[in-house]
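#struct-help
A.M.: can someone run this one for me? Single chain, 192 residues.
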Amino acid sequence: MIHNIAQGVQAFTSNAFLVAGDRTVLVDTGANFDAVSHLQGDVDNLDAIVLTHTHPDHVGNVDAVRDAFDVDVWGFDASHPMVDHAIADDEEVEIGSRSYRALHTPGHKNDHLCFLSSDGEVLFAGDLVFQNGGFGRTDLEEGNRDLLVESIDRVLATADESLGELHVGHGPSVVDQPYRHIEQAAQAARLY
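D.P.: on it. Structure tokens below:
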């Protein structure tokens, strides 16, 4: 089960995906809403928080969730004060009941990770790409358009058309031909 606990929140936040299973994980925590009460309505326990990156809209609720569920936070850069444990590029990470390959995908932010399930069916893309060919901003600190294009290309080369679910940092998840949305993002990031 993958559930966006931030769905319907009106404040500025990222999506925050609760992935239930053998290892119940929250992928990103969102910000500016009461994530703890949303989680308590869905689960009794949480095993970990996994971050796609550390922009404030993705980590604003980290402390509250960490305190309420007594969980550690995993992300690319263990020197960041909110990250307890590093996830290396190409490392396998258990999220829910699946194994995911962590892909270091800088360009939007240096510590950005995407997570592709080992069966190739599910991708957590953070702010790398969005629905309808959208892609992450590169005008913020650590943003770099050339790196972003390389990162999108890496995801395209790692995933394929069997991808069934694309869960993004903002906006709706994509379940209708998500690989094409990533292809569109690769083209758009080169043009705009």
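A.M.: thanks! Helices lie at 35-40, 56-59, 62-69, 145-158, 178-191.
D.P.: also worth noting: The first strand starts at residue 2 and ends at 4.
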